[in-house]
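Re-running Rieske 2Fe-2S domain-containing protein to confirm reproducibility after the cluster update. Everything else is unchanged from the original entry.
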Amino acid sequence: MAQGKRLICASADLVEAGKGFRFRVDHKGREAEAFAVRFGGRVFGYINECGHIPVRLDWLPGEFFDDSKLYLICSVHGALYAPETGRCLGGRCQGKGLAVLAVDEADGQVFLVKENTHG
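Result of re-run:
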């Protein structure tokens, strides 16, 4: 494993626009739940909190996509987010996107690039 990276899951655990993989990180000095999903053939990572208020996004454990499989959706408010950027696309997020985590995929594994995020 490369220095400064932490293993999240195997690449095979993330199916295109399918179930996400949840894990925990240090975020802004506190332990927080996070998740990784695959969309457009790439892996993206976010803190598992709606941009509106800090509630979990997934409507069932690991279920982050809406019915169309095109957007991430907040289980409480129905706010929609772009899976490739975390940007708020509509709903009660009112322009507040998801907190992005740096992730990398190599050799059949998905890694968190840095543990302590500040953004």
